[in-house]
Amino acid sequence: MFIPIWGNISYPLCKRGQGELKTETVEEGGKSPLTPLLQRGGLVGLFLEYALGFLALSVWLVGVSAEELLVDHLDPLPYDEKLSLKQVVDATFENYPQGSVIAALKDESQALSQRTESLIAGYPMIYLQYIDDRYFSNQGIMQIQTGYQIPIWMWGQRSASRAVAEEAEKSANLFAFALKHEVAGLVRETLWNLKVMENRHGLAQQVYDVSNQLFATVKRRVELGDLARSDELMAESDLLDKKSQLTLAEAEVMHARKAYMNLTRLDKAPQQFEEKRSVTAEIQERHPAIAAADAFVERAQADVEFTRLSKQGNQPTILIGTQQEKFTRGGTINNEANLVLQIPIGGEAWNAPYVAQANIALNHKIADRATLMRKLERALHEAEHNLEVDRATLDIANQRKEIAETHLRMSLLAFESGEIQLIDYLKIQANSQAAIRDAMERAILVKRDTAFYNQVVGVVP
């Protein structure tokens, strides 16, 4: 299971398989290569070709080509031997929508750095004051004050601002890497889903071809008078059922291809994307998601300290200016320099709610980090367990496949000798198909589980 940290995204599934089935059919009016056996009345001749074609299921898989499509809808996706999983992840990450969030976080860190490097701690102001007594005593008293007021850093405030800027830059970079790790999980999911769907389609294609061959053989036998018309109808119904399954499997392949192209924005897929299992056996602090979560916690801690020292923006200020004044009408104007220093003191009670809000944000980040760790630990257990289970069931599935192949051969002989009917033979054939299909898919699931395990422990291709 894929545990996202930055979105409602889930970890991967599995996919795909290719191969080609060549069957020899009897053209209408032509002569089958098994005609001598048919003339001897042997049912082995009727079904030998069918059985051999079916048993080939365990050897190869069938791909999808434009000529084989049952529905006129093709989403072409060629495979490139030179394209690697890492290249696909890099290309997907480059075009990923949340890349704009990374850019925004980096812009924020740059803005915070600019604030820290500034020599002033806020908005400077121009000060202008004019006083006279014209409307009261009217003695000609006049006073003009001008000045430039500059906010300055409190003790330790600039260091706290620098810490916020540094943690913001760090968290932006680690978020980018965590997002790339998340993208890797999505790529793994779509590729392995494609692998599974193409494998299922290949099996459905082969089963359909074998059923088509069986129908042709039964129909020929009915024409010779050796089988009843009901057997032909039964074989035809089985063929239509297999055609329906093939159509659905074909659609799933197209959906899987479109999902891959929609995610990666690429028009080709890697031929090889299997992975070796990572030696990492636990969720470490360097895990991309955990490292990013830790960085956001540290950023929130820096915000708390900066808020505590900022006092809602009430900065100390220095005013440098001039003062002109006269005390009598027509008197001499005195020119003076003016220097004012303002330092806010006390008022912690008014700043406490803002510090508390910053502390709440910090504790949310801490809780998110702890929750994420628990999810990853659970996901790691599931990934390990799924890999162990699929390895064990693969051995069982391979044994079932061998038994199914043997059972199919035995049932063919039984049908040839008249011990079982066609309907019984079709049931055995269906069970055999299921066993072979399960063995092939289990082999893919083991490889998929390895990729999922690597995703959970934080491996980025």
Describe this protein's structure.
This protein is an alpha+beta fold and 461 residues long. It is 60% helix and 9% strand. It has nine helices and six strands. The strands form two sheets. A four-stranded antiparallel sheet has the order 2-3-5-6, with no helix packed on it. β5 and β6 form a beta hairpin. The two termini are 18 Å apart.
Brief characterization of the structure:
This protein has about 450 residues and is α+β, with helices and mostly antiparallel strands.
SSE inventory with pairings:
Layout: H1 35-39, H2 43-55, E1 79-80, H3 85-94, H4 99-117, E2 125-132, E3 142-151, H5 157-223, H6 229-264, E4 269-270, H7 288-310, E5 317-326, E6 334-342, H8 348-416, H9 422-456
Parallel strand pairs: 1-4
Antiparallel strand pairs: 2-3, 3-5, 5-6
β-strand number: 6
What is the fold named in CATH at topology level? Outer membrane efflux proteins (OEP)
Widest sheet: strand order? 2-3-5-6
What is the correct CATH architecture?
Up-down Bundle
Note the run of SSEs as H and E: HHEHHEEHHEHEEHH
Q: What is the CATH superfamily label?
A: Outer membrane efflux proteins (OEP)
Q: Helix/strand/pairing class, anyone?
A: alpha+beta
Shape: rod-shaped
Unreliable parts:
1-67
Portion in strands: 5-15%
Instruction: Measure the end-to-end span.
Output: 18 Å
Main sheet summary: 4 strands, antiparallel
Question: Which bin fits the share of residues in helices?
Answer: 55-70%
Radius of gyration: 39 Å
What is the average per-residue confidence, as pLDDT, rounded to a whole number? 83
CATH class: Mainly Alpha
Number of domains: 1
Number of helices: 9
